[in-house]
Structures are given as structure tokens and as C-alpha cells.
Amino acid sequence: MLYVHATIITVNGARDIILDGAILVQGNRIAAIDKTNVLLSECPYEPRVDLTDRIVIPGLINAHMHCAQTLLRGTADDLELVQWLCERIWVLQGNFTPEDGETAARGSIVELLRGGVTCFLESMFSDRYGFDGLCRAVEQSGMRGCLGKIVMDIGTYAQDPKWAMHPGLIEDRETSLGGALQMWEKWDGKANGRIKVWFGARTPGGVSDALYKEMSEISRQKGIPITMHCAEVPADREFFASRSHNPTSYCSSVGLLGPHTVLVHMVHLDDDDVASLEKTGTHVVHCPSSNSKLASGFCRVPALLEAGVNVALGTDGAPCNNTSDLLQEMKLAGIIHKVRTMDPTAVPAETVLEMATINGARAVGLDKEIGSLEVGKKADFVAIDTRKVHLQPWFNPVSAVVYTATAQDVELVVVDGVEVVKNGKVVTMNEAEIWKEVAQKAKEVVRRAGLDEKVKAKWNVK
User: How open is the CA angle 359-111-456, to the nearest 5 degrees?
Assistant: First the structure.
């Protein structure tokens, strides 16, 4: 298939932008990329798709996502973190069934695909959500999923016993680590390599040192990557201090640092932490909407980037963002550090697009296959329709993508050479059926958790 007459932002090594460009897809790979007239002359009989007035970018990579939490959108708004977590989110998640988990995964994937995300990293899918259902949803959808199965053996958060998990979420070593290994053996590499199974470790304080060390050793032996929340809130920093550590020295002590690890949030860091992340090649995921809405703080993204740390981008879950629109997340990532540093050049649009594409691919270990549009790489790309008033005029296509476009502007999504979104609609899954299932299952979870009166509107509803 030949995709023609597009403005193509390649994010290749030279950061080429091709006006009136074309992409030739053969199988699941990019066979050629050049000016439209060049490829039309070379491939005159190839079936073609006209992308006039579209901007084409590499498939977006959401490097931090909680698929189960899509059922919980809007159930914990405007709450302080402890109340948000212990009185709402953990209680709701502790009442999930495997059917709820699969419905949530299907809803998450449809939302991600419609927003141009072709690959995502699930952070901590619990045993009770039904990991098989998550994998089935990814398999059916046609997208890529790096799927973290939760690893834990302590049911509290940080060092405060009041921050206790709902009993329905607590797992021991055998269920969490053992279950993750079983799912890795069953699903890793399935769906033509689109499914990768990860360890999704709980935040320090939720995992014993012994289990961290065991998981880290298995990770190195078997090549299973690790993702983990870290240094998100001041309480995390207090936990590390209680162990005579800072965030990265603690992670180093249990074998977590390295290019096999993706640490999420990383808000409360000192200069030593930044240097340690760069030295070890550990990846960081920035979640600006979540950090803002939960008042967690500002990640030191400019300092991390300046030090050479690979920083990717994530939306986090629906209760702390309310959307999985990575395009909107890109805009906030480009804006928030300007006011924080009082420097409008702090994180430019081009850097943000790198965070959402090639940096994300590097974080999940797939940068040789995806994250940029180059000959020989997998055909994962997105077309954004600029034939709308709010997207005109544009002069710099990167600026238009980062600061103006939203998920509603995504028209076409190709993953592994297959068109999975056409005309703004997912074609591999039944969207109407899924949104009805999501609405129904969400109400059932809230009712089961006994929180009907807690999540309703605060103003009078007549």
C-alpha cells in the first residue's frame, strides 16, 4: 500500500520533515519513504491512500497506563492523595472481577487507538483483573502492548500503615511474581510479537527488598523488563530516607536500575538521582496531567533531559487524568515546564514529540523497530486530519501536532502494516458494544464497592 501526499514528520536521525511525502508499506514494514512524485513513479500500480492535508507522525507510545482504571474515570476527582487512593481507587479496584478487567482493557485500547497510540506500557495489572483478558484485548485490537503484571508482597504504601490496600488487591509472592512468570511464558511474543509481558512492580514500600532482588535477578536472566512508580509524592521520599537512601540509591540497592527498567513519575529527585539515572541508562516516564491533578509536584524534566536521561511520556490512569489522549498530554508537557522554570524554551514542541515517539520506543526496548518512520522499521504511523478550522493555519507541523491537535483529529492509524483506525473509527473492535459494556461494568463496580453516594455529582441533580 502506498500512502501519498502527506506531510510526514519522520523523527528519523536527521529529523526530516517531508512535504508532499509518501510511505510505501509492504507486509508490516516501511519499504520506502520519499516525495510522492518519486514513489508514484517507482510504484505506479501500487494501491494508494490519498493523505492530502494530513500530517503523518510515528505511532505514539503511551509509556504509562492503568488499563483497569478506565472503568473508574471521574470517580475520584479533586481529592487529596491518601483519600483518593485508600478510600476510592483501591476500594473500587478491590471489587473488580476478571470480566470487569477485560472490559476495562477493551475500553482503554479503543480510546488509545483513536488517539493515535500504537503501543502502550501497562503498569500494574493485578491478578484479580484477569491478565488473560488484557492479552486477548490487545491481540484482537491489532495494537502493541507491553503489559506489566503486578509484583508485590506488602499491602501498604510507603511507611504509613494507614495507607492500606483493599484486601481484594493484596497478592503474595506466588500470586504476583509467580503469576507474572506464568503469563510471560504464555503470552510474551504472541500476536505476531505485538504482546510483551513485563514485571509491574509496586512502589517501594509495597515490595520487600528480597522480592525486589529476586525479581531483578529474574529480569536480567530472562530479559523481562520492569516498570515501577517511584518518587511520585513526598511520602515516597520519606520512605527512602527512612532506609537511609534517596530514590535511586534504594533502587540500585535492590537491583532495579538499568536500561531494563522504566521508572514512572520521578517527581521528587535531587541532583544525585538525576546523575544516577543517566549513568545507569534507566528510563523515566513523565505524567504531567496526573502529577498536576493529584498535586504530586513537578518532575524535573528539563534537568533530566539536559543530563541525557531518556524521558518518555504517559497519561497514567483515568481517575488521575480523565483521558488517555496522549496528544493533550503532549501539550501539557510542552507548557508546564515553561512556567515552572520561567523559560519558554525549556521543553520545546520538538522535544515533546520525541518523548511521545522515539523516546517511548527506547524506553520499551523497541526503538530499532518503532518510534520513527524509516525504511525497514515496522509500519506504525498515524495521520492527523488538518482540514479543520482549529488546525489552520499551521506553519510548523510539529507545533500543530503538539500544541493544537487532540485525539479527535486522528483519522488513520496503522500498526504492523494494518489499518486499525479508519476515518477516526477503530475497525478491529466494536466501539459501540465496548462503550456500552464500559458504562455498565463501571456502575456495577461502584455499586459493589458501596460507593454510589460518593461518586455522584456534588451539585443538586433534579
Answer: 120
Asked if residue 435 is part of any domain, the answer here is no
Phi/psi at 4 (nearest 5 deg)? -125, 160
Residues 93 and 230 in one domain: yes
Q: What is the pLDDT of residues 165-221, one digit of tens each?
A: 999 999 999 999 999 999 999 999 999 999 999 999 999 999 999 999 999 999 999
| 116 three-class SS | coil
CATH number at residue 11: 2.30.40.10
| Full 3-state SS string of 34-98 | EEHHHHHHHCCCCCEEECCCEEEEECEEEEEECHHHHHHCCCCCCCCHHHHHHHHHHHHHCCCCH
Q: Rounded to whole angstroms, how far apart are CA atoms 294 and 310?
A: 24
In a domain, 454, yes or no: no
Evaluate the CA torsion angle 50, 24, 391, 424 in order and state its sign.
positive
Q: What angle do CA 234, 150, 230 make, to 5 degrees?
A: 20
Is residue 446 in a domain? no
Taking residues 155-173, report their average pLDDT.
87
325-366: pLDDT as tens digits: 999 999 999 999 999 999 999 999 999 999 999 999 999 999
Closest C-alpha to 331, from 303, 382, 292, 283: 292
C-alpha–C-alpha distance, residues 228 and 284, integer Å: 10
Look at phi and psi of residue 142 and say left if phi exceeds 0, alpha if psi is from -120 to 50, else beta. left
171 lies in the same domain as 242:
yes
103 and 189 part of one domain = yes
pTM over 0.85: yes
Q: Longest Cα pair distance anywhere in the chain, in angstroms?
A: 69
Assigned domain for 449 exists: no
Q: Which domain holds residue 121?
A: 60-363
Rounded Cα distance, 187 and 277, in Å: 30
The answer to whether 144 and 153 are in contact (CB under 8 A) is: no
